[in-house]
Write a structure and sequence with these properties.
- The chain is an all-alpha fold and about 600 residues long.
- The chain folds into 2 domains: about 5-115, no CATH class; about 135-590, no CATH class.
- The protein has 28 helices and 2 strands.
- A hairpin with a 2-residue loop joins β1 (about 560-565) and β2 (about 565-570).
- The chain is globular.
- The chain starts with a helix and ends in a 5-residue tail after the last helix.
């Protein structure tokens, strides 16, 4: 294709995006006037929906993107409409899958078309420096987070006819609201804050030793990060309504952590597995209804071989999930190829509410763990060119599928991750399929192993169908409210600092300060899919815990600095954001009852 033909094609693409922008803008205005005259709340949502997609088309026009991006946006738009009308439609996820495939294809086409291939140093402008303006955006995000509970409890309570979940999904301690068998009471043990202060001082001291190269051994660094991740959870629990007893209450709760509640009652594991669908999923057993059998079996294994004492089980889960710092460290290092950046990513993660609050009792933190290690091993397979790691990755993912049905959508991450590390060409086309097939084989092998070990007593597909039918109480909550509220609620547990860095990364991609990379593209694609699908409503701060693996490495990118073609990250910025992230966690624990 010569330059003249490329120019003609660009004009056609430019016209396509511009005409789509105009069309969507006009439709949005028509819907808005319809809302003004007839006051239908759904019309207000549709106005915003069309308006946002119109803006997306306008951005694509400005950035001269190709047809593949256009097609991907259309699939996302239609998928969102299907999810809005039919909450549990699997057709919507088929459309989201096509959105993801065409989005990645668009990025591949861009790289091949302009003969570009970026290492992560090449993503940045010549002398990129961290901008203090980011702190202004942090203040804005913090204000939104602080106002969010009030707005949901007071304003949207009226708009959505007293929807009960608006009063309990953020159980405020000063109002005495609890949940999931965990009571709530105003915070008044101010002396316990001293433990948080000491903990953070130790973090700052350790940062000094790492950034000044006093500690160079990665194994030692990772061990300390794991220790900090575990101790931090205990420190934060000291701020909870019932101190460390909160951990026992969360584990033993018949409502939120029904897995342990029923696991401790199991006399015959084979009978439990055989009767799981009829006796448990189809009964009023809280979260067992929507989960595969391994979620409960996981707690049974702890009870059987270690201990069933609730608080001890909590400590085991807290320690187990602290191991998440390893894949986050490794994945960030493999992407950015910078050890301080990898350390910063792991540090930021362990300070988030996602780690310190949500990773002490619930099964969702365990799902994150298996997903994290699955992605880590798959990356190791690609970078080390060893298929055995891709197979191990599949086994870890397979375990995750038996704990949560929701993890299946994350297969898209695996299918896209190859392009983070390898440029596609005629020589490696087979490799793409080879690694993915071996990964899928690992999933299949785990499913076969589970079937053989349990004597075919559990039908996974039947369990999935029952789960779809039994979670309608959650799925029937208003889409127009939760498709955006879910993200804010989840973001509070990722922390304002992380979310601001994450969103700034994409703003910089638009302005050209930091070019788009595949990992960031995969990340925003998965976030978009979950937002528009909106399968769960009001509890996504824990159900979307796995997103932190896709968010953290991306949030590190704008924190870097490029001087003389070398990437660096300043200890000062790391300390500041560490404080902001940890402060977010402390504030949440003090003002919101720790029920998960």
């Amino acid at each position: 294709m010569n330059i003249k033909n490329i120019g003609k094609k660009l004009i056609k693409e430019d016209f396509l995006f511009l005409s789509s922008f105009i069309l969507f803008f006009l439709i949005s205005q028509y819907i808005f006037f319809d809302y003004l005259f007839f006051h239908k709340i759904n019309n207000l949502f549709l106005w915003f929906y069309f308006f946002v997609f119109g803006l997306i088309f306008f951005v694509c026009k400005i950035k001269n993107l190709n047809y593949f991006y256009f097609i991907s946006i259309i699939f996302l738009f239609v998928g969102g409409i299907v999810s809005y009308k039919y909450t549990q439609s699997l057709m919507a996820f088929f459309l989201y899958g096509l959105f993801f495939i065409f989005l990645i294809t668009g990025q591949i086409y861009n790289i091949k078309k302009y003969n570009k291939q970026f290492n992560y140093s090449g993503l940045y402008s010549k002398q990129y420096a961290f901008s203090p303006i980011i702190y202004v955006f942090f203040v804005i995000a913090a204000i939104i987070f602080l106002l969010f509970p009030f707005i949901m409890r007071e304003f949207f309570w009226i708009v959505y006819n007293s929807a009960s979940e608006l009063r309990w999904f953020i159980p405020l301690r000063h109002l005495g609201i609890g949940g999931n068998d965990v009571p709530g009471a105003p915070f008044n043990d101010y002396k316990d804050i001293i433990f948080s202060i000491i903990f953070f001082i130790l973090i700052i001291i350790f940062n000094y030793f790492v950034f000044k190269n006093k500690i160079k051994n990665e194994l030692i660094i990772l061990i300390f990060l794991i220790i900090f991740a575990f101790i931090g959870k205990i420190v934060i629990l000291k701020l909870a309504t019932n101190d460390l007893i909160t951990l026992e209450l969360k584990i033993s709760s018949a409502w939120d952590n029904a897995y342990h509640f029923y696991a401790k009652k199991i006399n015959n594991i084979y009978e439990f597995i055989a009767n799981y669908i009829n006796d448990y999923q189809k009964s009023n057993t809280s979260h067992l209804k929507g989960h595969p059998v391994l979620a409960t079996v996981f707690y049974w294994l702890i009870c059987k071989f270690i201990t069933c004492v609730p608080i001890k089980v909590g400590y085991i889960i807290a320690l187990f999930t602290s191991l998440n710092v390893i894949p986050i460290y490794y994945i960030t290092k493999s992407i950015i190829n910078n050890r301080p950046a990898a350390y910063t990513a792991a540090l930021f993660y362990l300070l988030t509410p996602n780690s310190l609050i949500l990773s002490c009792a619930g099964i969702d933190s365990v799902v994150l763990l298996f997903f994290s290690y699955s992605i880590m091993f798959f990356i190791m397979g690609i970078t080390k060119e060893k298929l055995i790691f891709a197979f191990i990755a599949g086994l870890f993912f397979g375990i995750g599928t038996y704990i949560s049905f929701g993890i299946w959508i994350l297969l898209l991450v695996v299918f896209g991750i190859y392009f983070v590390y390898k440029r596609i060409n005629s020589e490696n086309m087979f490799d793409i399929f080879k690694y993915n097939i071996i990964f899928l084989l690992g999933i299949i092998i785990f499913h076969i192993i589970f079937i053989l070990l349990t004597g075919s007593k559990y039908n996974y597909l039947d369990s999935f169908k029952v789960a779809q039918l039994t979670i309608r109480d959650v799925a029937n909550r208003p889409y127009t409210l939760w498709w955006w509220a879910n993200f804010i609620h989840w973001s509070e547990y990722a922390s304002a600092g992380i979310i601001v860095l994450y969103l700034i990364r994409f703003w910089y991609a638009f302005t050209g300060k930091i070019k788009m990379d595949f990992y960031s593209l995969i990340s925003i694609a998965i976030v978009s899919i979950l937002l528009f699908a909106c399968m769960g409503r009001a509890e996504q701060h824990r159900q979307w815990m796995f997103l932190i693996l896709l968010i953290i490495p991306v949030s590190i990118i704008p924190l870097m600095e490029k001087v003389n073609n070398k990437l660096n990250i300043k200890m000062l910025y790391v300390n500041i954001f560490s404080f902001l992230i940890f402060l977010n966690t402390v504030i949440l624990e003090i003002f919101v009852t720790d029920t998960n």
